[in-house]
Amino acid sequence: MSKTIWIVVANRVTARIFAAESPLGAIDEVETLLHLQGRMLDENLVTDKPGRTTDRVGFGRSATDPDTSQHDHEATVFAAEIATTLAKARNDARYGTLVLAAPPAFLGVLRKAIDAQTRSLVTLELDKDLAALDARALRSRLPERLVRAEA
Prior knowledge:
This protein has helices spanning about 40-45, 70-90, 105-115, 115-120, 135-140, and strands at about 5-10, 15-20, 30-35, 50-55, 60-65, 95-100, 120-125. By secondary structure, the protein is an alpha/beta fold. The protein has one domain (about 5-40, about 70-140): Nucleotidyltransferase, domain 5, CATH 3.30.420. The strands form two sheets. It has a five-stranded mixed sheet, covered by helices on one side. It has a two-stranded antiparallel sheet with strand order 4-5.
């Protein structure tokens, strides 16, 4: 198993993956994933009007609302893409420890998307949007030691 630590900072639009060779070391960016649909307005994502349904009583018809918004759907799609990238990298032994940082709502979606084997490598989660920070600024916002010392 690799001793490399991967730090994934993500939001609905961007996921940046950084690597550290030691728990106290500097970090370097290794990969960036973009999902521009996460930035678009709902009316630009959906070309149709909502479907219509008839009332059980009377002759009225009303628009139906989808169970999830298009933005929520796009967040789920992007989280699945990130999860696939992390699973492939885990299978290729590119990292042995994982740190996740994302805004609270997206962190929840990302947790659901990540498989159990990858999830077992997560040692730290931060519920903050740090995706816009460069490597030096990001490292200063992370704990000094990225993983606990082994006993």
